[in-house]
Amino acid sequence: MAEYFFDFMLVSILIIGLTAFLADITNKIGKLFSLSKNNSHTFNQSQRIQKGWNNIGGKK
After folding, report:
1. CA distances from 37 to 10, 40, 52 (A)
2. Of the four, 3, 14, 48, 60, which is 20 to 30 A from 20 by CA?
3. CA dist 27 to 2, 11, 12, 23, Å?
């Protein structure tokens, strides 16, 4: 019975590890072959949306 739990833990660790590793590799490949060369588009969009918002906390 102990061998079953050892095998179960080993396989589950391998599956979780491979999933995390492959997600990271896929993300890097996607960024490498990205057709969009404008990397600051999201940042500029956030600035445009937040224009005129009041700051909270701290001194004015």
Report:
1. 42, 9, 28
2. 3
3. 38, 24, 23, 6
CA dist 44 and 59 (Å) reads 26
| Gap between the terminal Cα atoms of the chain | 67
The whole-angstrom separation of Cα 27 and Cα 33 is 10
Which amino acid appears at position 42 of this protein? Answer: T
* Separation between Cα atoms, residue 8 and residue 34, nearest integer Å: 38
Give me the residue label for tokens 């095998």.
7
pLDDT tens readout for residues 36-59: 666 666 667 778 888 888 878 766
CA distance 16 to 23: 11
